[in-house]
Design goal:
The chain is 24% helix and 28% strand. By secondary structure, the protein is α+β, with helices and mostly antiparallel strands. The longest helix has 15 residues, at 141-155.
């Protein structure tokens, strides 16, 4: 992915605090005073900012600011999309990024990652190495969740649970 913003340009416009993960403006513009925090949350919870008529995710800008290069993909280790401290960010493959999911999709009926319900039972399953693995049918949601978490810790290298 080509980006039209360099690390040099970014450092002239913004200051990044790696301990807090917060960016602030250091260059004044029309309606933008110096020292104002940067970023607005997206619908998925990531912080994004407009720079030079283009939108950028702040976790990607943090990587650029600190390491001087654009990452392929950045993962929030703790799963918090607004925690852009450099210690919480890692450059990973798409697969590892997916393996670090911590919450079920919004349309999940059980609300638990890796668990669905059928015929009064809870079914746990996980995808690993491109294959879906059935972990069993359980009487309780808690048992199914525990089975999924155990498998996730064993099979997903990107997992941080």
């Amino acid at each position: 992915m080509t980006q039209d913003l360099s690390a040099e340009q970014l450092r002239k416009m913004l200051h990044y605090d790696p301990e807090t993960g917060v960016f602030v403006w250091i260059e004044r513009a029309k309606a933008r005073p110096v020292g104002v925090p940067v970023g607005c949350p997206t619908a998925r919870g990531y912080l994004r900012a407009g720079i030079n008529k283009r939108l950028y995710y702040l976790h990607r800008l943090a990587w650029l600011y600190v390491y001087g290069e654009w990452p392929d993909r950045v993962d929030h280790i703790n799963g918090n999309a607004q925690d852009n401290r450099i210690a919480n960010l890692r450059s990973v493959s798409h697969q590892v990024n997916l393996e670090n999911l911590r919450r079920a999709h919004v349309d999940s009926r059980t609300g638990v990652l890796g668990v669905c319900q059928r015929d009064g039972k809870f079914i746990a399953r996980i995808k690993a190495n491109g294959r879906r693995v059935s972990l069993g049918r359980f009487a309780s949601l808690e048992e199914a969740r525990a089975a999924y978490i155990a498998a996730k810790r064993e099979l997903h290298q990107g997992n941080t649970l």
